[in-house]
Amino acid sequence: MTKGKWHGQKSIKKKLSYLVMLLTISIFLSCVIYLAGGPKENKNQAAGPQGPNVRIFLSKEDKVVTLPMEEVLMGVLAAEMPASFEMSALEAQAVAARTYIMRRMDEPWGVGSGHADSDICDDPAHCQAYINKEAMQEKWGSNFETYYNKISQAVQNTAGQVLSFDGELIEALYHSTCGGQTEDGGKPYLVSVPCFWDTEAPKYESKVIFTANELKELLNVSSKELAAIQITSRSASGRVTGLSCGEKIFTGSKIRELLGLNSTNFAWLAAVNGSEEEYIFTVQGYGHGIGLCQNGANGMAKEGKSAAEILLYYYQGAEIEKKY
Ligand SMILES: [Zn+2]
Ligand SMILES: [Zn+2]
Predict the structure, then answer these.
(1) What distance in Å separates the CA atoms of residue 250 and residue 264, rounded to the nearest whole number?
(2) Which of 49, 178, 225, 305 has CB atoms 3.0–4.6 Å from 246's, for a disulfide?
(3) Which ligand lies nearest to the CA atom of residue 180 in the structure?
(4) How far is the CA of 295 from the centre of ligand 1 (A)?
(5) What's the pTM value of the predicted model, to 2 decimals?
(6) Residue 118: nearest ligand to its CA?
C-alpha cells in the first residue's frame, strides 16, 4: 500500500472499508485461534484425555485436593525429574509416575494407598514429590514456559500409558542414580540390571569424610566399637545391607540415614590426618537404586532409545498398556 492513497481525501471511504476488512479478518483469526485453544493455552492444557481424578494430600497445606491425573503428573514430573532431561526420559518418567499413582488408587486396577482419604501424598519419602504451577514458576524462572511445555508434552505423549506385569499394575519405583547397577526390589520386574548410562550424573560417585569423633557421635558408638566397624552383608548389587560396630548392628539404610549418605552403596578408608583419625566414605549413586534409574534413562535417551525401550529395560518383563 502507498501513503498517498491512505492520506487522500477521496479515499476516506476506501480507507474505512479497508479498516472494516482488517477488523473482520482479525476477529475471524482470533476466533480460529480461540477455537484451536490458542498456541499458548493449547500447550498449557493437556489436550488428551485427563484420566481419572486423583486425591492428593498436600502435606504443607495439610489438605486433600482432587485433580485430574494428567495435572497431578505435571506436578510430579516437575518435582521428580530435571525438566532439562531428554524427552524420552521425561516420557518414561511420566509412565512410571502414572503407574505409581494408579496402583495406589481405590479403583479396580489399584491396590490402595495406605492413606485414609487420599490416593497419594506429595511427600517424596512416602509417595512422590509434587509441586504446583506457582512452584514450577519459582523453580524454573525464565525457563518456565519452555519447561512447562516440555513436561506437558511428555505427559500428553504417554496419555493413559501404564506398566503392568501379569495383568497387575507394577510397583513402579525409581531413583536418581543407581551408580552402575540397579538394586533388586524383590519383585520379578524389579530385578537388578547393569546400568551403563549414568556415569556422567552429578551424584554418580560422592566422597564424605568423617573424623573418628564425628562417626562415634553419629553412630552412638564407643572408640572400641568404632575400631571394630565392619560390613556384615551386601546385596547382590553391592549395596550394604548390614554393618556392625562390635555388638551394635545397623542396617545399610540406617547407616545411610545416620551419616546422610547418597546411597547404601558405600565403602570407606580409614586414614590418619595429622592427629585426627579420619574415615573417607566413597558412595556410589544416589537413591535406593530400585527400578528406573533417572540419570540412566536420560543417558539411554541421549543414545536415541525410546521411552518404551527405557521402561522395559529397568522394569524387566513388564508391559506397557493404555488405561484411558
Ligand atoms: Zn504418601
Ligand atoms: Zn543407573
Answers:
(1) 12
(2) 225
(3) 2
(4) 24
(5) 0.83
(6) 1
